[in-house]
Amino acid sequence: MIKKDLFRPFTILLIISWLTIFVLIPNLGVMGISFLTRDEANFIDFTFTLNNYQRLASEIYLKVFLKTFSVALCVTTICLVISYPFVYIISHTIKNKSTKDFLLILVIIPFWTSSLIRTYAMMLVLRVNGLLNSFLLGVGVINEPIEMLYNWFAIIVGLVYSSLPFMILPLYTAFEKLDHNYINAAQDLGANKFNVLTKVIIPLTKSGIAAGCILVFLGTLGMFFIPELLGGSKEILIGNLIKNQFLVARDWPLGTAIATILTILVVVLMVVYARNTKDTNRYQVVV
Amino acid sequence: MDQSQTSVIEQVPIIELRNINKSFNSEVILNNFNFTLDQNQFVTILGPSGSGKTTIIKLIAGFELIDEGEIILNGVRVNDLAPNKREVNTVFQNYSLFPHMSVYENIAFGLKMKKKDKAYIDNAVRDVLKIIKMEKFADRKPDQLSGGQQQRVAVARAIVNKPLILLLDEPLSALDEKLRKEMQTELKQMQKDLGITFILVTHDQEEALSISDTVIVVNNGNIEQIGSPSEIYENPVNSFVAGFVGELNVLDAVIKSKDSDYITLLLEDECLYKMPNKQNVKGNFEEKFEINDKVKLLLRPENLKLTPLRLDSHNASEAADNPQVLKGRLNEVRYRGALLDYLITLNNNKKIIATSFHNKTEGVADYAEGAEIIIEWIADKEVLTK
Question: Which pTM was predicted?
Fold first, then answer.
């Protein structure tokens, strides 16, 4: 009996210690360092300053932030537009369960592979003598290879590709909960396809849309290796900026300041999302 | 609506199903369905689960498309018409009220889709809210309503569009007994007031019999019988219909002789019974019987009459030897409030059941369990099938 009584506190203690050691303390450390001064020899000098944040207010850094947000927004939109009809079809028009499972597994399998490896694979597809160019040349759509790698196109394609499951899975949960009779009822009452979509399907899958968008948007904000590999280090996003401060410029205080701002933005977005969602759906974003 | 107009409309059947066939994954759901319904009728489609009855509603509403045949709605072929183009509305089994809309918005939805003007919509919605006595609930969300209230709103949301036909897919099955009875009465009243045809799908025979003008009995994708409740109950065409619409005793019999007036049966290898030959009298009764055919005699429990077989009584001892009466032993008397059920075992161990009113003066009620009894029945109420 004593063992059983200890089980609960032990489990909780384990998780609390884990989160404290690996999440809370490092994050506090990051925030702390962001108020310290850069030191060439020892990385940091323990002198309090707001200088790091003042530097970030400059135009160059604001542009990076703005660019990152635009890219994230663009990726989120593309993911939503691609996923929404796909998920609708999987969950509401395909009646054969094995076909359904097969299509979902196609989405999930790449999800299990390292996204770094998938990004390298993407390079093989997109490069000048890569699969896509060879195919287009072979079919005769183009006469000479198109430069598809190392530009914004490649970055967006890579980000969309790696974020897609994060959009599809929450949407799928929402669509599975959507009783098809609501759609029948709307049609029965005279709604055309557009009205069925805007008046019934979208409002009733709102939680899935919000969860998917937040997961993709937040995930994209901090991504650094995809822009680096597919963008050829030409384009700087927040993730690259942070990475460069640590590995290239050796400016830890600035890097942590950027990371802190990013963390605050993420937390604000999560709170806004949670406030606007019913209690039952609030934790869907975690799933 | 004046009289002449009514008669003009009634010339066109409101809906006609011609040779409808429907299968899913090569499994036949509906097999050659045909029926025609008139304006202003309460029709129920009665059948066990899996009989295809809900599919009929889906085909009429347009949620599923028919494989073969024709659906003629008010004189127009609607086979390939999308659900939003068909002038029928449905009350769904789980009501399917839009959870993100208020009661008012739910009811107004159909009229908004038809682009009616705001004043018209407001008037129409207020009117039906009054009909369903829910004016005070206009701003509630569906999840703030009880099951009965949701059901009312679902009906209101459909009838506000003034459909040619209102389809109801087992809308009462989720309600408790008392509420169901109330809603049956309300639906019937609503149908009379609105003057449109209601098609109600149900597996509840009591509901079907008490509420309808016409009952369509379906089983395994086939229409077994179409008729008024009393036709269905008193003149079932086969033992399935007879058994489905009420309690039933089935006696095995062999035809021994027949002429134009009488058919003589050997019941349960025991009793020779001479029944009036009704073959040519009743329309539903199409089967032809030959001598030595094995047949079934169907008897409703309430039509059985029990008489004590007292050995001291003169006529009883006569009856005991009379091959023309059916005899049995009373096993158990079950109390059912206003009714009493008598469970009887025949001499060949077949069990049958007789029902009578509790306070009947001619006293069968005082039977001791285990008593020998004579079983008789009202000659007109029996049904013979193969």
Answer: 0.80
For B12-242, CATH gives 3.40.50.300
CATH code for B249-385? 2.40.50.100
Amino acid identity, residue B249?
N
- pLDDT at position B319 is 55
State whether B113 and A190 contact (CB < 8 Å): yes
- Give the residue from A94, A188, A205, A206 with the most B CB atoms within 10 Å of its CB, the best one to mutate: A188
The token pair that represents A77 in the structure block: 């939109």
CB B125 within 8 A of CB B137: no
End-to-end Cα spacing for chain B: 48
Determine contact: B161 vs chain A, CB below 8 A. Answer: yes
Domain chopping of chain B, boundaries: 12-242, 249-385
Query: Which residues in chain B touch residue A191, judged by CB atoms under 8 angstroms apart?
Result: 84, 109, 113
Q: For chain B, what is the mean pLDDT? A: 85
Q: How far apart are CA B302 and CA B354, in angstroms?
A: 6
CA A175 – CA A172 distance, rounded (Å): 5
Contact at CB, B84 and A188, closer than 8 angstroms: yes
Is any Cβ of chain A less than 8 angstroms from the Cβ of B52? Answer: no
Output the six-digit token pair for A181: 């009779």
For B251-279, b where at least 16 C-beta lie within 10 A, e where not — what string? bebebeebeeeebbbebbebbebebebee
> pLDDT of B227-248, one tens digit each?
999 999 988 888 889 888 888 8
Pair B67, B10: CB distance under 8 Å: no
pLDDT (tens digit per residue) in B142-196: 999 998 899 999 999 999 999 999 999 999 888 888 889 999 999 999 999 999 9
Question: Which of 1.10.3720.10, 1.20.120.140, 3.50.50.60, 1.10.3260.10 would CATH assign to domain A60-286?
Answer: 1.10.3720.10
Task: Summarize the confidence of residues B294-315 as an average pLDDT.
Answer: 77
Comparing alpha-carbon positions, the chain A residue that sits nearest to B109 is A189
Could you tell me if the ipTM is greater than 0.95?
A: no
Q: E strands of chain B, at which residues?
A: 15-24, 27-37, 42-46, 68-73, 76-77, 88-91, 165-169, 197-202, 214-219, 222-227, 249-258, 262-267, 271-276, 294-299, 304-308, 326-336, 339-346, 351-357, 372-377, 383-385
Q: How confident is the model at residue A45 (pLDDT cuts 50, 70, 90)?
A: confident
Closest residue, chain B, to A278 (C-alpha): B100
Pick the residue from chain B with its C-alpha nearest to A185. B96
Who contacts A46 (Cβ-Cβ below 8 Å, separation ≥6)? A36, A37
